[in-house]
């Protein structure tokens, strides 16, 4: 059965304190791994797509990496505005459905 | 204007009532999805549609039905609402090209009392 697991469930960082979020997956034939950011009461906002092991994508303070079993979202020198829930998702069902992890709730404090 | 628009944004309804949530998109995508989000459970797929004539059940379709009125419109109905359907509901769209990302609406917060 296809599964997506994110850890930790919640993470509290001080401003400038770098860290990583983890997304481990078990799917038959990865067709894409996605990272989204979600602010409270709003819809998920697309960040990155990764397709194959070894691939990396960067955007401002965020960097996403992919291996054959997991993906990491690295946050370098975070700011309070990076506080949000970060969601990981993979294509399942032959590429027809997106299956999400339960997310990591990140809070960055001054 | 948002590319994916959901109406209403908030709704309180009584147990047993029928309610419809609507989604429209201007992205020209043929794939549309309905998800519900609950604390600790993440986003779970209710129904998805590849075009007007192709509708499929997701992992939690019981108690829900959908209608794809046009390529740009996808509605979710709760025939007889119950309290455990209280959740945040999201519509999403995606291009048919394999591996492309999904775009989400702003969500509908539904409370069943």
Mean pLDDT of chain A: 93
What structural category characterises the helix and strand content of chain A?
mainly beta
**Number of DSSP-assigned strands of chain A:** 11
Order of helices and strands of chain B: EEEEEEEEEEE
User: What is the overall number of helices of chain A?
Assistant: 0
List low-confidence stretches of chain A: none
Query: Which class of secondary structure composition applies to the elements of chain B?
Result: mainly beta
Query: Percentage of helical residues of chain A?
Result: under 10%
Biggest interface, CB < 8 A: A-B, 24 and 28 residues
Share of helical residues of chain B: under 10%
- Largest sheet properties of chain A: 6 strands, mixed
Number of helices of chain B: 0
Q: Which percent band covers the strand fraction of chain B? A: over 45%
Shape of chain A: globular
Give the distance, in angstroms, between the N- and C-terminal Cα atoms of chain B.
32 Å
Q: Overall mean pLDDT score of chain B?
A: 94
* Proportion of beta-strand residues of chain A: over 45%
Question: Could you say which overall geometry of chain B the principal axes of the C-alpha atoms support?
Answer: globular
**Rg over CA atoms of chain A:** 13 Å
CA-CA gap between termini of chain A: 41 Å
């Amino acid at each position: 059965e296809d599964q997506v697991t994110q850890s930790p469930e919640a993470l509290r960082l001080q401003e400038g304190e770098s860290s990583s979020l983890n997304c481990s997956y078990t799917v038959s034939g990865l067709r894409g791994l996605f990272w989204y950011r979600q602010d409270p009461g709003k819809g998920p906002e697309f960040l990155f797509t990764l397709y194959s092991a070894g691939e990396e994508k960067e955007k401002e303070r965020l960097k996403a990496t992919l291996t054959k079993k997991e993906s990491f979202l690295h946050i370098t020198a975070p700011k309070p505005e990076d506080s949000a829930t970060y969601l990981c998702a993979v294509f399942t069902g032959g590429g027809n459905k997106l299956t999400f992890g339960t997310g990591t709730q990140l809070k960055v404090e001054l | 204007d948002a590319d994916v628009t959901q109406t209403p944004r908030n709704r309180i309804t009584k147990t047993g009532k029928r309610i419809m949530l609507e989604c429209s998109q201007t992205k020209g995508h043929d794939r549309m999805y309905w998800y519900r989000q609950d604390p600790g459970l993440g986003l779970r797929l209710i129904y998805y549609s590849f075009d007007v004539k192709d509708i499929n059940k997701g992992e939690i379709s019981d108690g829900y039905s959908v209608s794809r009125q046009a390529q740009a419109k996808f509605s979710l109905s709760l025939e007889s609402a119950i309290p455990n359907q209280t959740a945040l509901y999201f519509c999403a769209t995606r291009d048919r090209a394999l591996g492309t990302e999904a775009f989400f609406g702003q969500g509908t917060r539904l409370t069943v009392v």
